[in-house]
Amino acid sequence: MLTKEEKANALEYANGLVDYVNKSPTPYHAIKTTSSKLVEAGFVQLSERENWNKQEKVRKGGKYFVTRNDSSIVAFTVGGEYKEGNGLAIVGGHTDSPCLRLKPKSLIKKHGFIQIGVEQYGGMIAHTWFDRDLSVAGKVYILDSTNGQLIPKLVKIDKPLLRIPTLAIHLNREANQKFEFDKETKLLPIAGQVSLDKNASTKHDERKSCADDPDLKLTSEQFESVQSVITRHSQSLVELIADELSVSISQIEDFELVLFDHQKSVIGGLNDEFVFSPRLDNLTTCFTATNALIEASKEANENQDIIRIMALFDHEEIGSVSFTGADSSFLLDIIQRLGKISFDSSSNMVDNFHQVVSNSFLLSSDQAHGVHPNYSEFYETNHSPHVNLGPVIKINANQRYATNSSGIVLIKRIAEKVKVPLQLFVVKNGSPCGSTIGPMLSAKLGMRTLDLGNPQLSMHSIRETGGSYDVIQLNNLFKGFYLHYNEVDQCLQRL
């Protein structure tokens, strides 16, 4: 039973997560939200295009972050007592969630309706997207006509725009027995009606272009289908985006948009014990890891002798194979650069990469499966984690998770220091097992790794359910890991 003060403190963190999720409908927004929090806490943004060895750009006691494609981020603090070759305490997670994404040519008109063509991103529970208030968000490239620069801007339309209606039970009497549908033809949102669309009869201006060159053998329509967003998407949708960004339609070069649940993330339950929310997988990690890194840097950084790192990657839900994913060079590049920096003016520049990696540890954090009271037969009896009973260590004999016994010993000792309860999860024999960024980063870096995460229900649904009292527990575990890793690791002997 929590005291009144403990409950208030826990709910403060849970409400912080709710606010974070509501600001972050896409990985781009999650990185913007994260970057803003880091800047406010005194972190300095670096660029991968810069030479970090020049003019002591990275120093002891400093706090920094680097983004890639505005959808992945690596943030780190250098301890004031850091010595070259010392280890790294890393918390890793991902910024993306399963969703629907606009196709490059999304405009569809059928039976008087304006529809939006979408493709499925990741392993979503598709039927949960029916009968929901949906909107769009993402990255838009704007042409600055004064200097010819192409500027990326984030957009989030805070209005219910779209809906994927189900078929009435009168027309499908088996709707409650099975709900099967073609994801190409039935998972199409409606956005409006042609008869009421102000742009229904609008004709686009004739444009002079290289499509007029007979040698190219391109029709004007073929050329425009690539060049103009108006010909590929609903003009009314493009106008909404332009209005949101205070630009003209002609300035919009292209965009990358996804659908998101317009209903806000909230605290719920009889005793405020739940977070009802989209994207808990894996914005819970993004929020708590960011908070923990900031809190640890404020509490003790000058006397620390390690580098603390938070790494959040895009594209985990589709395998991580991209230049911003965990299977990219992003984290490896950062570690290699840090290993080559001379933090002491008296030392020679030496590549300390292998020594650093050997002294380091990665916590791979992704949401875990809490036991579902209506489907308990799907869980292994002795490994059925409960929501609001603390973070879950995830174990798999086939290395779908990277956890091993030395990692469990280390994280248990840290959890004891910060008084965070831990749970264990193993999938049932014969059941499929998901995976995380843990195994691939462990193999890529040659680094000790442990997989864990907060328990939740309805993973990959458009609305997930997590524990409001678990948020502070994961935050405190990460903070404890940043503060006590090196001390505990020194006690862990290796064969």
Number of strands: 20
What is the CATH architecture descriptor of the largest domain?
Answer: 3-Layer(aba) Sandwich
Model regions low in confidence, pLDDT < 50 over at least 5 residues: 204-208
Shape: globular
Strand count, sense and barrel status of the largest sheet are: 9 strands, mixed
**Assigned CATH superfamily of the largest domain:** Zn peptidases
- Widest sheet, order of strands: 1-2-3-13-4-14-18-16-17
Class based on secondary structure composition and strand pairing: alpha/beta
- The proportion of strand residues reads 15-25%
| Integer average pLDDT | 93
Distance between the first and last residues' Cα:
42 Å
* Proportion in helices: 25-40%
What is the count of distinct domains? Answer: 2
CATH topology of the largest domain: Aminopeptidase
Helix segment count?
11
Radius of gyration: 25 Å
CATH class of the largest domain: Alpha Beta
EC number: 3.4.11.21
GO molecular function: metalloaminopeptidase activity; zinc ion binding
Family: Belongs to the peptidase M18 family.
Catalytic activity: Release of an N-terminal aspartate or glutamate from a peptide, with a preference for aspartate
